[in-house]
């Protein structure tokens, strides 16, 4: 018989800051490199928008390298509206602010310990 290896998962909390209105909903995702800026990511949650900050608690996140994304879905279609100059809805990613989204700069490592990540909507 083969021994089963147990995969340990953890909790990742994504704090989305900078929500300016209560219009629509806020959608937060935790994505691996293949899913980054694509829809849907394996881990995704939505909540009614409210001014200020919203916390999303993701459980059972497998170890790996991820980036967090969030946006305020103002038009209710479930997708980030993007125009010629970038997002037309408030959006943000984890990591430092960059001109163009970059997975490697936004990425964080998930191990066995709970983790909290912040994403600022712009």
Number of domains: 1
Helix % is under 10%
Total strands: the figure is 10
Shape: globular
Cα(first) to Cα(last) distance is 54 Å
Describe the structure.
- The chain has 122 residues and is mainly beta.
- The chain has one domain.
- Helices cover 3% and strands 48% of the residues.
- The chain is built from one helix and ten strands.
- The strands form three sheets. Strands 2, 3, 5, 8 and 9 form a five-stranded antiparallel sheet that branches. Strands 4-1-10 form a three-stranded mixed sheet, with no helix packed on it.
- The termini are far apart.
- The model has no long low-confidence stretch (mean pLDDT 93).
Features of the shown structure:
48% strand; 122 residues; three-stranded mixed β-sheet; single chain
Q: What is the element layout, followed by pairings?
A:
Layout: E1 10-19, E2 25-31, E3 43-48, E4 52-61, E5 64-73, E6 82-83, E7 86-87, E8 91-93, H1 103-106, E9 108-110, E10 115-120
Short description:
The chain contains 1 helix and 10 strands; from the N terminus they run ββββββββαββ.
């Amino acid at each position: 018989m083969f021994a089963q290896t147990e995969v340990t998962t953890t909790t990742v909390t994504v704090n989305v800051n900078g929500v300016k209105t209560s219009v629509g909903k806020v959608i937060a995702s935790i994505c691996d490199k293949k899913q980054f800026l694509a829809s849907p990511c394996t881990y995704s949650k939505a909540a009614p928008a409210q001014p200020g900050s919203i916390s999303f608690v993701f459980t059972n996140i497998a170890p790996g390298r991820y980036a967090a994304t969030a946006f305020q879905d103002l038009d209710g279609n479930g997708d980030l509206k993007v125009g010629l100059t970038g997002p037309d809805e408030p959006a943000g990613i984890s990591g430092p602010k960059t001109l163009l989204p970059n997975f490697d700069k936004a990425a964080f490592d998930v191990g066995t310990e709970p983790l909290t990540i912040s994403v600022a909507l712009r």
